[in-house]
Amino acid sequence: MRPFSPAETARLLGIHESYLRQVVTEENGVAPAVKNGRRSYSVEDIHELRKRLDQGTRGNRRYVPHRGPGEHLQVITVMNFKGGSGKTTTAAHLAQHLALHGYRVLAIDLDPQASLSALFGHQPETHVGPNETLYGAIRYDDERRPIAEIVRGTYIPGLHIIPGNLELMEFEHDTPKALLQRRTGDTLFFARIGQAIGQAQNLYDVVVIDCPPQLGYLTLSALTAATAVLITIHPQMLDVMSMSQFLQMTGDLLDEVSRHGASTSYDWMKYLITRFEPSDGPQNQMVAFLRSIFGEHVLIHPMLKSTAISDAGLTNQTIFEVERQQFTRSTYDRAVEAVTNVNTEIEAQIKKAWGRAV
Fold first, then answer.
1. Which of 129, 215, 285, 342 lies most in the core, judged by the most C-beta atoms within 10 Å?
2. Which NCBIfam families match (predicted)?
């Protein structure tokens, strides 16, 4: 993880840069690194500063915004039926944004292609072994493991991950057999992810699930475990038509599983416009069309198409990780602003679900 400038650090902590200098001076603890005359802070420094700042606020969660009594775990499924909509990029940036702002976050890679895992440095072919994906915690046989045994730390304090690989497809193959051979007391497929997450719910504020681009048992189980749904949509006609079919099939299947006891009520459900080009006339028309249909369910801020974000992905990095010097200043700042606007809007939905002032 790259170091952060004093201005970036102050924004992440929600304080003025002058107050940051004062806090560092008074505490004589966390000192910025100095290179070529420029000060910077590591993610560990920011995490420590956040804890120290919160000690003087009498636990009002201003700087350490962990959920309190009566605030339920937020489980956000990021999904789309069509590949290339920016689903994994959205999930990665959302998880990192929340962790950098002091939340305890668990990212779950539910996609057998495991792109989210690769973004966090876990290559599915070499770094993720048997029974080390979420499949290990939701499988039907005696080899099922507690979720705590498969959670991994990351290079960002407060952010953990459960990686994925092709092993996740085993759940799609096992479920039909389990339905035929079901024993009394067995948990049905749609409740297994929620049951696994429940084992660790007191350790996190938000769970971000990157769903596979298909409507299988994994996706249905994730939707049943979710408290919120974020659907990514590229504003082109073929993508919108595909999303329409996906939503209709999803609705029919959720109605069916709800008749068997599944929960399908959500705190919020939002559509995120991704890979948006403001200068593209047809895209603007499509966005206006989507807003006319879905209204306030479409997030106000779109995720802009950016060479900075796409180039960062080529080296398995997010915009929070790449150095600003790799791009022109305007390109980098525009990408960071777009990502921050989207994730701040989603963070507001989380706070609203908890009953906090936004």
1. 342
2. partition_RepA, PRK13869.1
